[in-house]
Design brief:
The complex is a heterodimer of chains A (616) and B (250).
Chain A lengths: L2 H12 L1 H38 L3 H35 L2 H9 L4 H41 L11 H28 L2 H5 L18 H10 L6 H37 L3 E5 L1 H9 L23 H8 L4 E16 L2 E5 L4 E5 L4 E9 L10 E3 L6 E5 H7 L7 E4 L2 E9 L8 E5 H8 L6 E6 L4 H13 L3 E4 H44 L1 H10 L3 H34 L11 H30 L2 H7 L2
Parallel strand pairs in A: 5-10, 7-9
Antiparallel strand pairs in A: 1-11, 1-12, 2-5, 2-8, 2-11, 3-4, 6-9, 7-10, 8-9
Chain B lengths: L2 H7 L19 E12 L2 E13 L4 E6 L5 H8 L7 E6 L2 E2 L5 H11 E4 L11 H12 L3 H14 L15 H13 L5 E5 L7 H16 L3 E5 L3 H4 L5 E6 L2 E5 L1
The chains are: A alpha+beta (616), B alpha/beta (250).
Chain lengths: 616, 250
């Protein structure tokens, strides 16, 4: 260790309060963002497992867009908080830098001295933070394993992610502490020694109307402490993440549930050959397996007699009866023609890929399903394809066609359905019948008012009289909804961690702000300001900066949740959004209040202040 | 009045702090055997030793002494900024050491005006806002207080700099604003710690005149100073702090 580094570390030891504070603050932020990042990755794995198992890829895409966006925000948040904390710490040393300059220390020496201090704090915090973050992550994984016994996920130690995080934190922290030191080194010593010189009179803001404590706080935050902007960005990100996870998470869950219920229909009893039904619903279950060639859907014994359908319609309690033809088949990607801006001409797209999918023929007039789709309703020459099929087999599905059994239909939409993991194509039943050469259907779906055992028993007897079995589709639907709900529950700890991040960011800002104006606070006390007034000023400072960053975050999160990240977003109830917004706003106020408490306690516990501050 | 009689006469339960409600005051300040010991690691530093002092309203008290003799400690204890280690401290007949910090804060606000050597204006507030601050803490009806603050700044001839921040004012100007602030809430006691130490001759004279004016208004003025201009004034009581002990020069 060089003489300069030794001196820098000694200086840090001589300022134990401030050094510990910065170390704690940086370590906590690195630990919390590391945990969120690693644990969020696991959640994605869980989602991927579920989605590639049997839930539709289109739903996976909705969830993964949402979760990936959150992880991106967390990643940015970590870098911003580390940089703002490092920067703020160096801002507090402005007077010391001015003093060293005033006594004739060279600019290079000053720069090296303070950078050495910054690097010591940064490296120590990053190492400690990553360690604690990883420990929390492992504990989280243990909890996850005990909570989700049915779901498997990979447990590889995340060396790459940790390395990436460490590199980003060190780079962000190093660069951010460099700037204020460099700026101050370039200033005249008198300016650095008198940080108030050049400050302007702050005019009344809207917070001023809340009383004297707010007026005093607004004057303080109005001085624009260097690093305030970065603190506000980090608070904005933290509050956005928490709001997105709470508000958006609920919207994602409800929307996914709505998609699922719309595509499957509620209170449905399926009728058909028992082996066919088992195969079909195995391909619908979150823990089942996709279809394969081993089963022949088109055996004549599987076709349902139309008189059974007529009898079913007459059963009391039946709302609707629908017949479908389902066929497992090879499918091919058909070409499409698109305009190419680059060569200013039409070009052909499509790679002629091949795969297998479940073909579903439906009667569009009587179907009980109301699928979410992107595109247009199909006619007799068009087909809808599932999310996974669209992603895996097509370049631009809506301008391409789907080939199957020597026929080709234009793709008019991609649709949401979890059947066969999204590897399905839905078309008019008459079209499919003519292609496969049958005249009937092999699956009947009977929708009831509600699951009444007597009605189900009647339907079962009727089905058995024709040699068919029944299947309670609602059980599969409930199972799928439960999986989505579990994923949403898993998102909640991340929201809390995001709020912890906001708490730490705000706490650090307030510590720098309050202890940067320590003299002002001590003067207030000496003049006669009660401890409760001092506490109110600190809370008001937190509210000033917290509300300024929190309200836009709330607004952005609501917009993103409803309009951007989740297509055709659905909300649980009309009151959901207002209630969520109010809940998050209250959480925000609690975070601000909690962040002010340690600052106040630190301030009031330093009894030596009044003596040293006023001694002549 | 003997000490015992005085202690018996003091109403310990009184929680109103405004001098106007106090009725007849026996002493603005009364210290009985006050000592203050600071701990510095294993060492103990005796800043004050058995200090006794009686100050009545209308008294002008000057306490001189070398640096480190305990002047500031004594002033902090009288101003309820610091607590004594032993002895009794009565300010406006109130045993202030017996109350909590919230009470002492309110007490300071209404009964003492502090003038510091280093002015101690709040850096983010303008001159008038610094004067308004203690008034607003005491009473929040803003429009009326604004006029009173302007009047106080006029008295110290700083009304034309009312909207300037402390860094925009000279040392003398800052001290005059600090005096205007000390007069806010019309406290009966003015405590000044080396008020002229950092000022040039002209500014120093202006501050001396203001302190005398405050004393002539009936306030008890206690000044810690080396300033001969103040020490040699007629009609004042002179003390000297010597190693934590207070000696009166008659």
């Amino acid at each position: 260790m060089s003489e300069l580094e030794t001196y820098a570390s000694k200086d840090l030891k001589r300022r134990p309060f401030r050094s510990t504070l910065v170390l704690f603050s940086l370590t906590s932020v690195v630990a919390s963002t590391t945990f969120i990042f690693l644990f969020g990755n696991v959640l994605l794995d869980v989602s991927v497992y579920s989605f590639t198992g049997n839930l539709s890829s289109s739903m996976g895409m909705f969830f993964s867009t949402f979760v990936w966006f959150i992880l991106l925000l967390v990643f940015i948040l970590g870098a911003v908080v580390v940089s703002s904390t490092s920067s703020l710490e160096m801002v507090t040393r402005r007077r010391d830098i001015g003093l060293m300059k005033a006594v004739g220390t060279t600019m290079d020496t000053i720069f090296d001295f303070f950078m050495a201090q910054s690097v010591i704090l940064l490296l120590a915090s990053v190492i400690l933070g990553l360690t604690f973050g990883t420990i929390f992550y492992i504990l989280g994984m243990i909890w996850l394993a005990s909570y989700l016994t049915n779901v498997q996920f990979t447990m590889d130690f995340p060396f790459i992610q940790l390395g990436l995080l460490a590199a980003i934190y060190i780079f962000a922290g190093y660069y951010s502490s460099q700037k204020p030191i460099y700026d101050t080194v370039q200033e005249s010593p008198s300016l650095a020694l008198n940080p108030d010189v050049g400050s302007k009179v702050t005019r009344s803001g809207f917070l001023d109307s809340f009383g004297l404590a707010f007026r005093i706080a607004a004057k303080g935050t109005g001085r624009r402490i260097r690093g305030t902007r970065r603190t506000m960005i980090s608070l904005f990100l933290s509050f956005t993440i928490a709001s997105l996870l709470w508000m958006g998470g609920g919207v994602v869950e409800t929307t996914s549930n709505a998609y699922m219920m719309r595509s499957m229909g509620t209170n449905v009893i399926a009728i058909g050959n028992s082996s066919l039904l088992n195969q079909y619903y195995e391909a619908y279950s979150p823990y089942g397996t996709p279809l394969n060639d081993s089963f022949n859907f088109l055996e004549s014994s599987h076709l349902i007699n139309t008189s059974l359908l007529d009898e079913l319609e007459n059963v009391l309690g039946v709302v609707a009866v629908e017949s479908r033809l389902v066929v497992f088949s090879d499918v091919q990607e058909g070409d499409g023609i698109v305009w190419n801006d680059l060569i200013e001409d039409y070009t052909r797209i499509g790679n002629g890929r091949e795969d297998t999918a479940l073909l579903v023929g439906v009667d569009w007039e009587s179907t009980i399903s109301d699928w979410y789709f992107e595109g247009t309703r199909p006619n007799n020459t068009e087909v809808w394809i599932g999310g996974t099929l669209a992603t895996d087999m097509f370049v631009d599905p809506l301008v391409q066609s789907l080939g199957f059994r020597g026929h080709s239909l234009s793709v008019s939409a991609r649709t949401f359905d979890t059947l066969n993991g999204g590897m399905l194509a839905i078309m008019d039943q008459s079209v499919l019948q003519s292609v496969v050469g049958v005249t009937g259907s092999n699956l009947a779906l009977v929708q009831l008012d509600y699951y009444d055992d007597a009605v189900i028993s009647t339907i079962e007897n009727l089905a058995q009289s024709y040699g068919f079995a029944i299947y309670r589709q609602q059980d599969v639907l409930d199972e799928n909804i439960n999986v989505i709900h579990t994923i949403w529950i898993l998102l909640n700890p991340l929201a809390i961690m995001a709020l912890v991040g906001a708490f730490l960011g705000l706490l650090n800002y307030l510590l720098v702000s309050v202890f940067g104006r320590l003299r002002d606070y001590v003067i207030m006390r000496s003049i006669g300001a009660k401890p409760s007034f001092i506490a109110r000023v600190m809370i008001a400072e937190g509210l000033d900066i917290g509300v300024k960053s929190g309200l836009p975050a709330l607004f952005v999160a609501a917009l993103l949740s409803i309009y951007t990240l989740i297509p055709e977003a659905a909300v649980p109830t009309l009151a959901y959004l207002p209630v969520s917004i109010v809940t998050i706003f209250i959480s925000m106020l609690v975070v601000i209040l909690l962040a002010s408490i340690p600052v106040y306690v630190f301030f009031m516990s330093r009894n030596d202040l009044r003596v040293s501050e006023f001694s002549s | 009045m003997a000490d015992d009689e005085y202690l018996d006469a003091v109403d310990y339960t009184r929680d109103d702090m405004d001098v106007e409600d106090f009725g007849e005051i026996n002493f603005a300040v009364r210290l009985a055997d006050v000592s203050r010991v600071y701990s510095a690691g294993r060492k103990e530093i005796q800043a004050l030793r058995n200090v006794n002092l009686d100050v009545k309203l209308g008294d002008f008290v000057v306490i001189a002494g070398h640096s480190g003799s305990g002047k500031t400690t004594l002033l902090n204890i009288i101003g309820a900024i610091d607590l004594s280690s032993s002895g009794r401290v009565f300010v406006m007949d109130v045993p202030i050491n017996d109350y909590d910090e919230a009470f002492r804060s309110s007490f300071r606000l209404n009964n003492t005006g502090f003038i510091f050597q280093s002015y101690n204006l709040i850096s983010t507030l303008t001159a008038i806002e610094n004067v308004l601050f203690p008034m607003q803490l005491s009473d929040s009806s803003h429009s009326k207080l604004q006029d009173e603050a302007i009047k106080l700044l006029e008295r110290v001839k700083m009304d034309d700099r009312a909207d300037h921040l402390p860094w925009q004012l000279s040392s003398g100007e800052q001290q005059r604003v600090a005096i205007a602030r000390a007069m806010a809430n019309d406290p009966p006691i003015i405590l000044a710690d080396e008020p002229t130490a950092n000022l040039d001759g002209e500014s120093g004279q202006m501050v001396r005149d203001l302190l005398i004016e405050l004393n002539q208004m009936g306030k008890a003025v206690i000044v810690m100073t080396h300033d001969q201009g103040i020490i040699t004034q007629s009609g004042i009581r002179r003390f000297e702090m010597v190693s934590g002990e207070l000696v009166e020069h008659v």
